[in-house]
Design a protein that fits this description.
This protein has a four-stranded parallel sheet with strand order 2-1-3-4, sandwiched between helices. Helix 2 packs parallel to helix 3. The longest helix has 20 residues. 45% of the residues lie in helices and 16% in strands. It contains five helices and four strands. It catalyses: (2S)-2-hydroxy-3-oxobutyl phosphate + 5-amino-6-(D-ribitylamino)uracil = 6,7-dimethyl-8-(1-D-ribityl)lumazine + phosphate + 2 H2O + H(+). Homopentamer.
Length: 164
């Protein structure tokens, strides 16, 4: 199973002039907090200044697409536009179809936002079958996997810097 993340970034990008938004769901707080921490850590490694990392929350993953759009518009309206957004959520399969509907609709709407907002919207939603899988992907189980939030932070900087 490939669990290495996005691998080496093809060059060291300078994120010192970037303004990155992170919007996260509040469900599965322990996992979400670790993913947000991982994204922030990686953004800072690329030189993104703490004051240029703006963090907001929404109730759940289903609210991430619309929340991301409102977040973007709010920052633009206060003359502090975002260069990229990292929506972070965790969906864990239960015993009903709810999981499939939320995964599908959230994924499709976040992807569409890239084109509507014309900035990178990084897919930071874990869709896992078990809580253990989600914890592993958040780097919470020692030696099992890395924190995917770090990948999302690196992807945000790369996508802005490479194509700007």
């Amino acid at each position: 199973m490939a669990v290495k993340g996005l691998g080496g970034v093809d060059k060291q990008y300078d994120g010192s002039k970037l303004r990155i938004g992170i919007i996260h769901a509040r469900w599965n707080k322990k996992i979400i907090d670790a993913l947000v921490e991982g994204a922030v850590k990686r953004l800072k490694e690329f030189g993104v200044l703490s004051e240029n990392i703006v963090i907001e929350s929404v109730p759940g993953s289903f609210e991430l697409p619309y929340g991301s759009k409102l977040f973007y518009e709010k920052q633009k309206n206060i003359h502090a536009p975002l260069d990229a957004i990292i929506p972070i959520g965790v969906l864990i399969k239960g015993s009903t179809m709810h999981f499939e509907y939320i995964c599908d609709s959230t994924t499709n709407q976040l992807m569409k936002l890239n084109f509507e907002l014309n900035i990178p919207v990084i897919f930071g939603v874990l869709t896992c079958l078990t809580e253990e899988q989600a914890e592993a992907r958040a780097g919470l189980i020692e030696g099992k996997m890395h924190n995917h939030g770090e990948d999302w932070g690196a992807a945000a900087v790369e996508m802005v810097c490479k194509f700007k």
